[in-house]
Amino acid sequence: MSGKPILISGGGIASLLLAQSLRQSGIPFKIFERDSSLVFRAQGYRLRLSPEGLDAIESVLDAPTWQKFWDKCGKTGGSGFASFNAVTGEQTERVAPESLASRGGKIVGIARGDMRRIFAEGCEDHIEWSKHVTGYELVEDETSGGGGGGGGGSSGGVRAIFSDGTKSTEGSMLVGGEGIYSRVAKQLSGGKLKVYDTGARGIHGQAPSTAFKGLGEGVFRLRDDTRSNGAIFIITNVRPGDMDDPNVSFGWTMGGQPGVIRAPNDNYSIVGKEAADLAKSLTEDWHPRFKPLIDEMNEHEAAFWKITCSTPSGVPEWPNDPRVTVIGDAAHSMTPAGGIGANTAVRDSALLGSLLREAGGYKPGVTAAYEKEMRVYASAAVHESYTTAVAQFGVQIDEETSTTVA
Q1: For residues 348-383, b (16+ Cβ closer than 10 Å) or e, as one string?
Q2: What is the mean pLDDT of residues 383-405?
Q3: Which residues, 6 or more positions from 182, have their beta carbon under 8 angstroms from its beta carbon?
Q4: How far apart are CA 309 and CA 377, in angstroms?
């Protein structure tokens, strides 16, 4: 790899998959991640992969890495998707597995942490840890006589600016992939890219796979509508083959309508016992079939989370910068409804990586072509995610009055 690198802000799944694409294309890159390692903090919940998401990932990874990824994925059939009254145990809905199938009639999922580890393989030497990107500066293109836009000659570039005031090496292009708090996205879009706080909250948890034996194989939603201030529910994916092994953990995601789940002092960075204790108190009246998921949870892994969403009307337009663009949650944050966000993020990585490979690296027009195509599928995805969340979470975003995430 030679020449100015593509700079990537953030080390999440979209950034790492883009890095895999660049690595295989021989395009130099550097990743700047604010955490100190891949396992610095909890990696969140298990992701259900759509056919489009799987296709995007397979199009990027080389054959051995794809096989490793595919082998790590869980393939679930069983009852398909089933919804239950969490208190009475009564089944309220069932969707056949083929309706949700990713491939081969199976629902395919993988833990976020496993996905990041596989995507990072071969890219480790290009990751700089504990580097929090807070902005960027364009470097004047001498052949165009100034302006700093980087749109014409080869001598222009871009530098990432870090929280300590230092700057990165000069890159040919910067990709903001650092999630909903992306400073790159705010600077690039002039504030047009917004993330709204829906008011809904959740808790992630894990328990030994043996705690899920009462459910059997499938994807499950357990919903409790007994509270006067709103509903809570849990989504979990129980895959075959591990339910008799207490050393294997499955995850679940609890969500609550606005006002139902409140972290102590509204501090949603709390992890561990306090989050676990709240989950247990909220589910103390649940049916015995479902209680083991909560009662046997690994308290250390419990974590709160806020449920956010981008502008429901779609990904906005901003003046294109040939040297800067954004991917994943930085471009289109989504609610967890339907698991659409991660699948859209990997599509971003595959698309941008493909355009850069075809161009042989940075070229004027790459970011414009990427953003034009991304806005179409990502806007549709945001709308679907938000519409589903309105029904599931009882959220409502008014773009004129709703609170945005700082």
Answers
A1: bbbbbbbbbbeeebbbbebbebbbeebbebbbebbe
A2: 88
A3: 9, 10, 176, 193, 326, 329, 330
A4: 16
* Separation CA 111–CA 125 (nearest Å): 24
Distance between CA 85 and CA 224 in Å, rounded? 6
Residue 196's pLDDT is 94
Closest of 48, 52, 53 to residue 14, by C-alpha:
53
Domains of the chain and CATH, by start: 6-50+117-196+311-393 (3.50.50.60), 64-111+197-309 (3.30.9.30)
Question: Which residue type does 283 have?
Answer: T
User: Does the predicted model carry a pTM greater than 0.85?
Assistant: yes
How many C-beta atoms lie closer than 10 Å to residue 324's C-beta?
23
**Amino acid in position 277:** D
Query: What is the enclosing helix (H) or strand (E) of 255?
Result: strand 249-256
Which amino acid is it at 284? Answer: E
Whether pLDDT at 151 is above 60: no
Counting every residue, how long is the chain?
Answer: 406
DSSP symbol at 162: E
State the virtual CA torsion across 5, 6, 7, 11 in degrees, nearest 10: -120
> Could you report the per-residue pLDDT of 311-363, keeping only the tens digit for each?
998 999 999 999 999 999 999 999 887 779 999 999 999 999 999 999 999 99
Which of 302, 296, 203 shows the shortest CA–CA distance to 246?
296
- Helix (H) or strand (E) segment spanning residue 84: strand 81-85
Residue 337 to residues 168, 191, 307, Cα–Cα distance (Å): 37, 25, 10
pLDDT of residue 154: 55
What is the rounded average pLDDT of the residues 115-135?
A: 96
Residues 6+ apart with CB under 8 A from 12: 116, 177, 178, 179, 328, 329, 345
